[in-house]
């Protein structure tokens, strides 16, 4: 956990958020500034700032999280399809230095 990290603060309960799910590996919260009808963020408890710093262990954890998301489509309201996004660095617009997976859905998304 990092002192000044927004997502670590949410985990510790120092900042409020709409938390939809939490287990030993990660939590899912609603994004404060939604870019789709449903915009959630899956945040591993492990504090790693950038995806390009991820170890093999961390990558396996992300895979596990993606698998869990796929089994939670009903609860998350994304049974018609969803998009997972991980931003890396400035050009991708990463604003929070704690690796997280955006989950977008709930409507037909623009093609990318
Ligand atoms: P990034 O741009 O780093 O890939 O994504 C960070 C995301 O976190 C943004 O979509 C932003 O809206 C969201 N976010 C930033 N601060 C907070 C917060 O305090 N609470 C919640 N729920 N989302 C946040
Ligand atoms: Zn953090």
Number of separate strands: 5
Q: Report, as a whole number of angstroms, the end-to-end distance.
A: 34 Å
Sheet of most strands: 5 strands, antiparallel
**What structural category characterises the helix and strand content?**
alpha+beta
Strand order of the largest sheet: 1-2-3-5-4
| Percentage of β-strand residues | 15-25%
- What is the radius of gyration computed over CA atoms, rounded to a whole number of angstroms? 13 Å
Count of DSSP-assigned helices: 3
Named once each, the bound ligands are:
guanosine-5'-monophosphate, zinc ion
Q: Helical percent range?
A: 10-25%
Please provide the ordered H/E string of secondary-structure elements: HEEEHHEE
Q: Globular, elongated, flat, extended or rod-shaped: what is the shape?
A: globular
Unreliable runs, pLDDT <50, ≥5 residues?
none
Please state the average pLDDT score.
Answer: 96
Could you please describe the fold and organization of this structure?
With 112 residues, the chain is an alpha+beta fold. It is 23% helix and 22% strand. The chain is globular and about 35 Å long. Bound molecules: guanosine-5'-monophosphate and zinc ion (ZN).
Looking at this protein, list some descriptive labels.
23% helix, binds zinc ion, five-stranded antiparallel β-sheet, alpha+beta, binds guanosine-5'-monophosphate, 3 helices
Element layout with pairings:
Blueprint: H1 6-12, E1 19-22, E2 26-30, E3 38-44, H2 56-70, H3 73-76, E4 82-85, E5 101-105
Antiparallel strand pairs: 1-2, 2-3, 3-5, 4-5
